[in-house]
Structure formats: C-alpha cells, structure tokens
Design goal:
single chain; 2 domains; 2 strands; elongated
C-alpha cells in the first residue's frame, strides 16, 4: 500500500510507515499490488498485473496453431503418394483440421475452445516429442530434412507449452 504522508510503497499490514513513521492502522490497502519488494529500498520491483508481451504472444500462438493446421492439410493434399480415401490420411486431415479450428477459436477468444486447448496442447506436446524422436531417425537418412523436421517439432513443443501458460494468463 502507499503511505499517505510520504507516498512511498509500504508493505501491506504494516502498523507504521518504515520511511516516515506515520500511523497506518485502519488504512485500507490500495488496489495496486506488489509482487516483489526490494529488501534494501522497499520499492516495488514488479507492480503486478500481466506483462506487456502476454497478449501479443497469445494472438501470435493462436495464429500459429491455425497456420500449422492449414499447412498440415496442404502438405497432405499435395503428397501424390497419399490416397485421400485412406482412413489414416483422413484421420491426419481431421487432426490438422481440428488444429485449424482451435487456432481460429483461440483468435476469437471463444471460452469453450480455450477450455479444451489445454487437453489438445497436451496431445500436441506428445506429438512433438514423437516428432523429435522421428527427426533424429530421419537425420540418418537425410540430414537436411531431419534437421528441418526437428526444428518444426521443437517449435510445436514450445508453442503447446507456451499456449497452456498464456491461456492461464489471459483469463
């Protein structure tokens, strides 16, 4: 809270101001909350609230989820070796389609979508870990393609973990 006499940040619940000695009993704490107080100067190190980067990061990752869904569907469609009537191929298109819909739902901040994204992010984490292992195997066959696959798998892993954090911060 703020001392009414000297206007300095005082620890909540203090009976007197540690700077000027003013009586603080009976004062209601101010709305401004300090997360950390410097032990030497008693000045707030962080005044609480969300960091400025949370919302841009949230919308960027939401767009990344939507874009990865589009790219995944596109890559399956252009692969001439894939039979589009094969159940496995249909399942892969559906999974990428879900990623696209989830990304769009996150961009629109639809609460139902945000509620299930934690589960989908967990599945994405497992898929990214599988992708990392697969890319290490692929490096034995084609180093360049294996490294590219590794990079995208690590990005997927980081995006999923970060999305779980950002949804909690943007509630």
């Amino acid at each position: 809270m703020i001392c009414p006499t000297c206007q300095k940040q005082v620890l909540s619940g203090m009976a007197t101001c540690q700077f000027c000695g003013s009586d603080l009993r009976g004062m209601a704490p101010t709305q401004k909350k300090s997360m950390f107080i410097d032990s030497d100067s008693y000045e707030p190190v962080h005044s609480g609230g969300k960091p400025n980067w949370v919302y841009p990061a949230y919308y960027s990752l939401s767009a990344y989820f939507a874009l990865s869904g589009i790219v995944g569907i596109f890559l399956i469609m252009i692969d001439k070796k894939k039979d589009l009537s094969d159940p496995f191929t249909i399942a892969m298109i559906a999974i990428h389609g879900i990623g696209l819909v989830v990304g769009l739902g996150l961009l629109a901040k639809i609460e139902v979508v945000r509620a299930i994204v934690n589960y989908l992010s967990f599945a994405k984490i497992l898929g990214a870990l599988r992708g990392i292992l697969g890319s290490l195997t692929m490096m034995m066959i084609s180093t360049g393609l294996g490294i590219l696959f590794l990079i995208f798998s690590v990005l997927d892993l980081c995006a999923a973990v970060m999305m779980i954090y950002l949804i909690g911060e943007t509630d």
